[in-house]
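Job type: complex structure
Entries:
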Amino acid sequence: MPEMALGRGARVTDAARPILETRGLTMRFGGVVAVDNVDFSMAEGELRCLIGPNGAGKTTFFRCLTHQYKPTSGHVIYRGDDITGSHTHQIARRGIGIKTQVPSVFDGLDVRENIWLSARRYHSNRESNRVVDEILERIGLTGVANRLVGQLAHGERQGVELAIVLTGDPELILLDEPTAGMTHEEVHRTTEMIREINRTASLIVVEHDMQFIKAIANRVTVFNQGAILVEDTMDNVLKNQDVRDVYLGKREVA
Amino acid sequence: MFNSMLKTFDFNSWNTRGLMVTGAIMLALLFLGPTIFDLFTLLKVILFIAMAMLALSLAFIWGFGGILCFGQSAFFGLGGYVYAIGVINMGESTVPILLAIFIPAAFAMLLGYFMFYGRLNDVYLAVVTLAVTLILYAFIRSTSGEEWVIGKARLMGFNGISSIPDPNWPGFPDSLLWPDDKFYVAMALLILVYFGLRFLLRTHFGRVIVAIKENETRAELLGYDVRFYKMITFTIGGGIAGLAGFLLVTFNNFVNPDKFALALAAQIIMWVLIGGVGTLIGPMLGSLALLMLYNWLGTQNFAGWLNTYLVFGGIILLFVLAVPQGLQPTAQMLALRFLPWTRPTDEGGDSARNGAREGRAGD
Ligand SMILES: Nc1ncnc2c1ncn2[C@@H]1O[C@H](COP(=O)(O)OP(=O)(O)O)[C@@H](O)[C@H]1O
Ligand SMILES: [Mg+2]
């Protein structure tokens, strides 16, 4: 479908041009189809929530987007370019940042070093130290700057990973269950932060906490068994019978 | 408690005292060596220095780059042979020495390219590197025939090349190095490479390779091309091992295929393991300790079924079980605990003295 990839004026205006699309994205593990022929699209500047029961394929979807998994078939298109075959580090350099479900940080290094490694990718040596101080302050990690990341509480490690991701100034940010393991107060702070991040970047957020989703998202995509079940506003999604069946059937707290 | 969480590497503190002590001891050795050692011992020390350099090469790529190369001897042997063939042909040593570094490095880069860009996993990498050194071993052993000549140099197969000319001072082909000079050069090179690596680990490159060892996926997600960094790390290790190979030749003007053999390949791993993976001084001391132990055991008479190999293996086994962290981390932990003055100095801020600082405080 080259005419879609080009997507010139006739079909979509530049403003409405999606920052990210997938076409027929599929990821199989043996007999398991973790991501099943997903056509996904989101606009520049959007804050999209991704929900769905455990095992629905949300994490796998993220991994395909960042090429941590090589999709079995289908395409990932970022700002009109097919990045399906790009390497993980190339995708990162194009401006996609990801906070993984299980915090992926450098446990054996201290907080400052973790963030420095991210900062130094894009800034000079001198600049990096300033950027690190700034982000430490912003995420509220200044107090633990010299602690080993592996020794921090789960919520703090989440914070470190968020800091690492934000330091790279990504244009599209994928957050996989960012509030898991956080205290009530930390969740509140994260909500504020996501709103603020959204002023300059597009986001896809996988979440389970309904309060949280209501607070941040306008559009919600519901995954089930690897496929998109519904895509709508939060209010409509909550009213949707299919969604209710999926969640109540599995007795998953969404 | 000791095992709970060790800091992989402390970038924010130079651990100035540790480095100064290390540097002082090494420099003292450099200047006093020829006065404290007799000629025979001095030559032996050159051998130890060559092996320490070899240990350093693996300590770097394994302990800091996370690359477990089982065939580090390949680059070592290659360095020795390249130097031998070069100096025999050119009658001058400056270029051959450089070749003894750069050819193994280039070979490592080529090998690294295929291994890392081909996404070989760690186990396969160990097997491939081992296979490479064993192939080189078998190949060089098969070169006894007269047809195996490179320029003026006959390869001599399993007999090895002997009477390899001594190195000369750069630019003065006629002024050869005396044993004292060889010692100075070897020791100076060891100091240079050690501090060079310490410096490298402080740079952006060094910090990235340690990060990759910590968490490869995260490094990639930050935009670092892991394959490239590993290839370069591996290349540096190959070059240092090649340099070690040259140093070994200066010890007795001799090189043979045993430099590629399984026995040595396995020993290098032991040196690093015993010295402490993730340290640099430890593996150098590890090589010294094991070589001396092995020599000493060779002079002992064991009764009946006991033999040198068995006792040697047994001691290594016991040591690894008793001191799993290795010499240097354990020594550092004990020092930090019982000798307050060894604690890292606080520089440039409030580097916390949390328990984490124990363990791998740096070098
Ligand atoms: N590496 C893998 N190998 C095999 N199966 C996998 C792998 N990763 C995920 N899966 C399977 O894919 C499905 C989707 O998992 P996941 O993406 O983690 O779901 P979610 O994040 O929505 O909870 C699950 O059935 C899971 O077992
Ligand atoms: Mg998940």
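Summary: Chain B touches chain A at residues 5-9, 11-12, 204, 207-208, 210-211, 214-215, 217-226, 349-352, 354, 356 (CB under 8 Å). The beta strands of chain B are 149-150, 153-154, 168-169, 172-176.
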